[in-house]
Amino acid sequence: LLGEEAVVESFLDCRKNLETHPLYENLTYFLRSRLMLKSNLEELEQFNRDVEALTSQLWTTETRRMIEYGECADSKRVKAHYDFPVAHLNEKSSLQLIRQLQQQREKIQEKLVLSVYESHLWRLRVDWLICQGSQHSEHGSISVLFAFLRRPVKDKMFVDHLKFWLNYVAVSLLKRARKE
User: Fold this and answer.
1) Three-state DSSP class for residue 37
2) Per-residue DSSP letters for 132-147?
3) 21 in helix, strand or coil?
4) Which of 7, 58, 142, 149 has the fewest CB atoms within 10 Å, measured from its CB?
């Protein structure tokens, strides 16, 4: 019981300077990259909806009827008709679709791939920081992770990663638990 105050003070001291903890900065960048990735994915979904709308306008069809007249073997006149669809390409929609697909390709190649890469990079950096942490920085890590869990973040994957890391740090502390 005498050492309890020192442990509590250690945790409280870690909370004073959360912004200076290396994990805080890396988690901030990870959160930003996840938000950018989510934004890029939403833009890509909008591109897909626009492409679907343009695709539906690309072709117009009309039904044509072909009528044939003939004569039977008994010399009676007969009439037959055949209905068939005829498709017409809408040039304006075609050009808009080409531009839209080019923009979509550029968005994927330039922004989405970079966002995915940055997100994975920052997640790996956080993984590395948490896995190599010492006991002193583990106290700070717990405080930083709880600080980020308290934020109203809508990204479920980010929250799941935070909970996983918090669990990992708590388990590693419990594995080396001493009287202090």
Assistant:
1) helix
2) T--HHHHHHHHHHHHH
3) coil
4) 7
Does pLDDT of 102 surpass 60? Answer: yes
Residue 30 has pLDDT above 80, yes or no: yes
For the chain, the domains span: 1-57+91-174
| Residue 122: strand, helix, or coil | helix
**Among the listed residues 133, 169, 96, 131, the one whose alpha carbon sits nearest the alpha carbon of residue 21:** 133
The structure tokens listed for 35 are 């938000």
Phi-psi region of 75 (alpha: psi -120 to 50; beta: other; left: phi over 0): left
- Integer distance in angstroms from the first to the last C-alpha of the chain? 9
* 174-180 LR contacts (CB < 8 Å, sep 24+): 176/135, 179/3, 180/3, 180/6, 180/7
Task: Residue 84: name the closest of 67, 99, 98, 69 by CA.
Answer: 67
In degrees, rounded to 5, the angle at the alpha carbon of residue 71 between the alpha carbons of residues 70 and 74 is 160
Distance CA 143, CA 18 (A): 7
pLDDT value of residue 125: 95
Q: What is the pTM of this model?
A: 0.73
Q: Is 46 helix (H, G, I), strand (E, B) or coil?
A: helix
